[in-house]
Amino acid sequence: MIYQVYVRSFADGNGDGVGDLIGARDRLGYLADLGVDAIWLTPFYTSPMADFGYDVADYRDVDPLFGTLGDAKALIDEAHGLGIRVIVDIVPNHTSSAHPWFQEALRGVNRDRYIFRDQPNDWESIFGGSAWTQVEDGQWYLHLFDSSQPDLNWDHPEVRAEFESVLRFWLDLGVDGFRVDVAHGMVKPEGLPDIGHADQVRMIGSDVVPYFDNDAVHEIHRSWRKILDSYPGERIGVAEAWAPTPERLARYVRPDELHQAFNFHYLGTRWEAGPLRHVITESLETAASVGAPSTWVLSNHDVKRHVTRFGSVERARAAALLMLALPGSAYVYNGEELGLPEVLDLPEEFCLDPQRLRDPDSGRDGCRVPMPWTSAEGYGWSSPWLPMPAGWGPLSVEAQSGEAGSMLSLYREALRLRRTVSGELRWSDSPEGTLVFSRDDGFVCTVNLTGSEIAFPAPGEPVLSSGPVEPGTLAPDSATWWRAKVA
Ligand code: ISL
Q: Is 121:115 a contact under the CB 8 Å cutoff?
């Protein structure tokens, strides 16, 4: 299991209200105890923070808000000492407008490292509005995200060489891999054709938008794979790619490309047996067709937390046992193991997500509220950068740690048992609204996705359950792990 540390909100080492690398290092013991195999650190590089670090001004340094390069090195080394691998984010589709290259471009020097044109086309930014901004001399530059995130020109050899060098910089420092931001972006189609579609942003993930999932992007991933493979140990690449279908997604994890790709089809599936079974089967088959593991994810810093998406803590508990029973790799977003809900009523003045600034209904602030560590007021934070709701005491790490039935205990236990589970997934027939599958050595997982009890004979001895276990029935919105006797 790979644990996503949203650095800003995970743990604060210097008491300034913003999470940082020292804070994360201080909590490595907690993560080891939870049972994580690796952590993924969201961007901590020098940045004006217009998109909370996904706008990088210096790819080889740490922003003072998060610490120093020495802190990064110490965190990596200490994690390794605990058997935890460290994956860092790399943001290759765009830089910050504060990056020296873009500052040069504004002065008319080496503009071709970015995408400047005399006339804009009709593309819209993911965050809303035109994807083009005009500069003083009349030219326009492309930014698929915020205007402070100009898109790089990946046809330029210097861009390719620079990122290869940045990869080597972090690999030399000891990281175990990269989460590749917008891995389906980077290469734009020849001639930047108009889309001519009125509702472009809603069409992302379809074949309609020509700026994502171009075939030519795979050549970059292949060249990165060669770099990863040239280092000792296993260094991995994880694609953040929003591909229209599982087949298209599987192309990012072909044997000579990246190792994993977040399964956003799974993340996007509602709490219903039929659609979930379909997406699980399809994802396993397509990943296996290229020899890659499936990679499951329920929450991250860009989407509404799944307690809120699914509508209840019971469902989130069951969803955790379902995900952690599946073959492949699972990603857990910090706070998910505490069952944190989306914070829906953040005061407007704190909400600075560029996506929300354009569209108040789509803000990503509510899933980025800091982790409650202690039960007392402040939850272990002094003036957290986003206010933390009243009533989160019982959700804190402190409160849940010693509580047998807590969400945290469920994750800990599931992660411990998961290490003993292997083999392919085999579906069994089961009543409507339920999912039942087995793995090797008699491991069975049952899930009831309905709001009613469903009669089902116990397939073995229960070993872990998200809800009550009654003989002969599956409790509403619950999942159970069983050990059947192997003949
Ligand atoms: O394509 C999308 C949805 O179908 C977008 O969600 C897009 O892939 C996604 O927003 C990319 O997210 C990543 O890059 C962004 C940053 O704001 C996010 O936080 C990051 O996860 C720009 O760097």
A: no
